[in-house]
Write a structure and sequence with these properties.
Mean pLDDT: 85
Number of strands: 0
Structural class: mainly alpha
CATH class: Mainly Alpha
CATH architecture: Up-down Bundle
Shape: globular
Number of domains: 1
Domain Major facilitator superfamily (MFS) profile: 12-425
Distance between the termini: 48 Å
CATH superfamily: MFS general substrate transporter like domains
Helix content: over 70%
Transmembrane segments: 47-66, 78-96, 133-155, 167-184, 232-252, 272-293, 305-323, 363-386, 398-421
Pfam families: MFS_1 (PF07690)
Membrane topology: Multi-pass membrane protein
Order of helices and strands: HHHHHHHHHHHHHHHHHH
Number of helices: 18
Radius of gyration: 21 Å
Subcellular location: Membrane
Length: 440
Amino acid sequence: MEKKLGTYRWTVVALLFFATSINYLDRQVIGLLKPTLETQFNWTESSYSYIVMAFSAAYAIGLLAFGRIIDFIGTKKGYIISIIAWSGAAIAHAFATSTLGFGVARAALGLGEAGNFPAAIKTVAEWFPKKERALATGIFNSGANIGAVVAPIMVPWILGAYGWEEAFLITGGIGFIWLIFWWVSYQIPSKQPKLGAEEYAYIHSDNEPEAAEGDHGKTISWGKLLSVRQTWAFVFGKMLTDPIWWFFLFWLPSYFATTFDLDLKKPSLPLVVVYTLTTVGSIGGGYFSSFLIKRGWSVYKARKTAMLVFALLVVPIMLARYATSIWPAVALISLAAAAHQAWSANIFTVASDMFPKKAVSSIVGIGSMAGSVGGILFPLLIGYLLDTYKAAGNINGGYNIIFLICGSAYLLAWVVMHLFVPRMAPVNLGEPTKSSTVTV
């Protein structure tokens, strides 16, 4: 049956997968170079947290802007602008000569990288029926893990062979290669000549047709989007959980180095294991809710049940404080990181389930901006805790508190989302109803 339908939509997912891999490769580089750059530029934990915050703040602004831009100009042009901006910024790190210079380059990277998820989620909404969206999202979202797996192998090798500057130059240049394939291969379904009629009909079998290219400018106002409960459910779901993933990206290498003496100048097997298993979580999480839907569950019941399961799987990370060797810690962190990616695949899909295609990028931008706001505040706390406990000669005490926060964040997010939208009904963007609106 699949062969009769055609499979070009999966080619589109492959493009999104590689873009997301490059996105996370570029943002992961600085975490792996942190010990080297700390020595060269005399960074404290707080100094590094400020650099992370610069990325987070710019990423937040960029998400809001790109969400709107992509709904206005379309996914193809939006992705092109995004990847040119972030790849150029990644390369610019090589020319930084001060902590301020890294902060500026990091902010530019955040602005550019912000376009990836609004564009990718909107692309999935354009190319997939609801019953396949979580799986498609899980597949492309697993690119985040591949980028994080490649980085611990690639970056130390480049560092040892050439230097930290070349690590930024080489990884930053990869995005321009992807750009060629996107430019040549991508069109929306109605304009893609390689797409068969059967597959086109299947893509639109349970949702509204995509907007024509000329209709992208007809966007829905932020005021209207912020007036519905579904928006706020997505906002708080992202705000409470995104900062945990950023902790895994930006501080996990340092945690293994300080707690278990992991040498970050060599390829790091523990990091490879963690990020490889998150790939299983991302694809498996998308598959799980899609499987429940195929078994007859409603779309929203399947998503909410899956997200509760994944929230519970993060809780054991609280036990990492008792790990006396690296591999028990790796196992607990791997489970939590995999569960995060499973959660992520579903919460992104929830946005495209609840909102019409013409609003998807804007909603993803708003919610992801909220996640970035959390990503701005959480590093402040992390830097304070680690510096305080390091001064007292017990930096692991700081990590123990952080793991307690990580373990409880997803259950809190699930409860808040449930309170806002107990039934997760599709949003009404016409005349607001009493059941779907909130006072802002």
